[in-house]
Amino acid sequence: MRWVVLLLLFLGQIINFADKSIVGLAAVPIMKEFDLSNVQWGLVGSSYYWLYPVTGIVGAAWADRIGAKKMLGILMLTWAVLQFGVLGITGLALLVAYRVMLGAFEGPFSPIAYSHANNWFPPKQRAFANSVVVSGATVGAMVVAPLLVAAISIFGWRWAFAFLGIASLIWFTLIQITSERPRDLEEKQSVAKKKLEKLNLKSFLILLSSPSALFTTLAYFSTYIFVVWISVWMPVYLVKVIKMSSVEMGYAVAGIGIVSVVVYVAISMISDSLFKRNQSWRISRVYVVGGSMIAGALLMASVIVFQNPVWVVAAMCLAKGLTYAILPIGPTIVIHLMPERGSLMTSILTSSGNIAGIVGPMLTGFVIDLAGDNTALGFNQSILFMGVMIMLFSILFSIYVKPDRTNTAAISPSGKIMDV
After folding, report:
1. How distant, in Å, are the alpha carbons of 22, 25, 81, 200 from that of 156?
2. CA atoms of 356 and 148, how far apart (whole Å)
3. Residues of the chain with pLDDT under 70
4. Is residue 414 part of a domain?
5. What separation in angstroms does the CA of 45 have from each of 19, 56, 100, 211?
6. What CATH number is associated with residue 185?
7. Is the pTM of this model over 0.85?
8. Residue numbers of the domain that contains 21
9. For 266-279, what is each residue's pLDDT tens digit?
10. Residue 413 lies in a domain
11. In-domain check, residue 416
12. Residues of the chain with pLDDT > 90: what percent?
């Protein structure tokens, strides 16, 4: 059953990120139909994240109480309604409203999915399990890009969105065949519910400000700047700067997605193998992720110098795969800090990272417009900014995140954080 659950979480992430990325793939026809400027399009991209961080935390916290399976089903049904609602969009205001609502109800999915996978798999397999969930995001955002581009060109962008609503309904039906958790975790879940009543807000905030939680969150945040850029701006970058056709762009996006999945799944498996061998969080999780992110930042920055289409695609394949290592492994680190609040801890990580989604698209649009007719310069500046940020926070992550020393998950009834 654990593999059935993992497959469904993988498919759910495909739908989740297809919902996110289709707006970027449909950017040209949407901007043309509604006569949108780069700044207005940046507004459309960022609006998805206006409520995303808040609802991500609230929804995940609620999932800790009512169960992940039930909460995930509720989210999927809501996505379906919103995607069918796209058929009625007639202008910028409704487009922004749709994106705000979609982001609000998609915010909780990833943290709940990571926590759900964490419950179904043992520690030595959790990085791999989460990498499979994350790979669903890449498949949804990039690998299915040619299919989405074809649907947009054949049926129009509105009906392409509606097809994703149908996929949401199918997923909701399939999740009903699974159980909430493995039977051997029933007793542990009962204990966890008791611990939920003892959570002290002051101690919880102290936990969040600890170096392990803080710098894991910052590393995740820096990578998510890149995540959002890939979703909203990379299709435009490949067409306008690298001079690819729409078809070439679709295949390039798919190729980047496929290779990057192989890279970060391999990194996750290496991390799991090291953890199984030495049980060291710092060696197997922190150093592996930090080193990967540093290498990815360097490759990302290289496309500013070498803009040959073949190199750009190759560098983006590796940069995406290497920097994305924090996405599956970061949740395992923060859940380790407080296991009984797995969904809440992961939601804070992902929602804090998704704050990047609020400012990233609009900032990129502003930078591109500042460059005037030199669109390539604007995109290069945005890429350099992302590379420097990822490099900085990955170094801080490698230095200060030390999950082995203290498991700050144990919070006493009096509110004190106890070493374990």
Report:
1. 12, 12, 19, 51
2. 25
3. 138, 141-143, 183-200, 357, 405-420
4. no
5. 12, 18, 10, 31
6. 1.20.1250.20
7. no
8. 2-400
9. 999 999 999 888 88
10. no
11. no
12. 28
